[in-house]
Amino acid sequence: MQIIETGNTAAALGVKLARAQVIAAYPITPQTPLTEKLSEFIESGEMKAEYIPVESEHSALAICIAAASAGARSFTATSSNGLLYMHEQIQWAAGARLPLVMCVANRGVGAPWNIWNDHQDSISQRDTGWIQIYANDHQQIIDSVLKAFCLAEEVMIPVMVCYDGYILSHTHMPFDVPDSETADAFLPPYQPPYALDPADPANLNTVTMPECRPDVRGDIAPGYMEIRHLLQHDLIEAIPALMRVEERFRAVFGRGGNPYIEPYRCDDADYIAVSLGSLSYQLHGVVDALRAEGVRAGVLSVHLYRPFPDKIIVEALDGCSGVIVFEKALSYGYQGPLCSDIKSALYRHAQGRPFVTNYILGLGGREITTQDLYEALKASCSPDGGAGEETRWIGLKLHTRGMQT
Amino acid sequence: MKTTILDLPEEELVEPGNRACAGCALGIAYRVGLKALGRNTLLVVPPSCLTVLQGLFPIAATKLPSLNVTFASTAAAATGLLAALKATGRTDVNVAAWAGDGGTSDIGLQALSAACERGDNFLFICYDNEGYMNTGVQRSGTTPQWAITANTPLKGKMQPNKNVPAIMAAHGIDYVAATSAAYPLDLYDKIKKALTYGGVKYIHIHIPCPPGWGFEPRYAVKVGKLAVETGLYELYEIEKSQLRHTGASLKLMEKRRLLPVENYLRAQSRFKTISDAEMEKIQDQITRKWEGYFKSSEEAQGGE
Questions:
Q1: B80, A206: Cβ pair inside 8 Å?
Q2: Beta carbons of B87 and A197 less than 8 Å apart
Q3: pLDDT at residue B155 above 70?
């Protein structure tokens, strides 16, 4: 059924279709309408699940971790400082190999306080062992939530579905909501490989030594490092696993295709702009304008950020002379993390390397005008487009008080 | 009904030869506590001495399913287990959390308070060895005043301890109890009774700690008993807001004779710097407190 609703509602409908059994959440802008909608579904009886209104994000994820350990499909959602407050639990969930799904309505982090969109919150959780998927529109939000449960349960790794706060979370857009029978056909009930059970007692997440140790029968069990290696191995294996999920999704719903990246006019492009989330679609118009002027530009939207599909990205960038990375996040003291990741991928896999340059923009919801994007991309679409400062900022107003440098 | 040692279930749910320190009173409390909880239980354990007692992967000393969780999240994790049990139709399974005093009164208090307010149905046990013993004896919210710890190394802790059972009782939950590893049958009966109530139930267990408190391993029970017989630590329960003493503390009410607190304090090296004047002050506080109890008990009897 085609409806016009907000991105948060799209996420909530995805969670409902996924038949999540345990939901715990703490209010934070701009995530709140998502979890309000879920509590409404549950209170009205439209959805059967346990909804726990917790006192903190740390507890929200604690509940999901425990519920998944006892065999229930579990979901939470947050933004910004809420996500940062979960950080310990985020690492724990990945280490414990629990198939949780969490939506992140992306928002800038404090200090200073800011409630508007950028990607610093989820990008700062990059190295936690979670799978990270970025959605560009409402259809991708609802579809990604369904796929996320499917993927998480196949590889036993938690998945973060990220979408832009306000720009997507609070705007109304048309999207298709599958009926529940079709969704059930895609995502059957969760069959946990192990669930805490008095009939089959086990101690989970016990202290694990640096070295391998024998059990009571003398069989050698893995040490901490082997267990962590397995997480890394399985994250890399999650890349092909996501394609299997995508193919099943397409077979059931008739849409989808490339779960890793979304290239736009990249095939013959000399210069390719790269970004995460809704910004990618804003760049489509910019590329169209440049194409009209005879500049062969394209846009590469990255959907799967972790595990990083490096070979797939390098293949998509193959043959271009310049890569221009637009980012709403920063590894403070260096450059945009996506820029670093792409350079790293090119170093390893590309033959003739294009230049890579980096624009930081839209932090804390700073307006991103299409004119600014056009001027930045146009300036970079030349053989010496990578010259000068590698990381530049768009939309900065440095004439303000105390900012003259 | 009072359980005797003859009535305790014979089945052991904690393996012998675990990694607890010699003379650890948690070993007594955990062994008897799990007998009271029974096999049909899921445990939640945050980082603490119990994590060590439970053993190092891939060997476990606990025969019940047990979930190790992050330090601040014990009570929330218990709620998560309950939610999953409910969502998967297994509503006959008990959920019990075992946290230390730091994991309860300090870092774990927020999540525990929230679970009380929501009325989530699990038993929360705080085993109180009065400090961060697992990390090498640092002060916690329940470390008593004047105790030497690794981060109050010369003068001892300056502040009195938190009264955690009173904080828990202030949530209006149906069952709060204080007990001691030195009185395992009192502990057993309290866990059994707690399980008859819904919502969060809270049991505080006094756990003498030989290396942390500074006494020989063989004296753990003796030190625990001295804490009660001097009137410093009380065995009681608050059942639907009604407080009553139990076991050895109830006997103190009848006998009206407290041992001098000096007997307890001088049995442990952690109180070695306490002055006679401070000890007198503590004795005075205990004496006045118990005189108050005696008086209200007389009034209650007079009124009957």
A1: no
A2: no
A3: yes
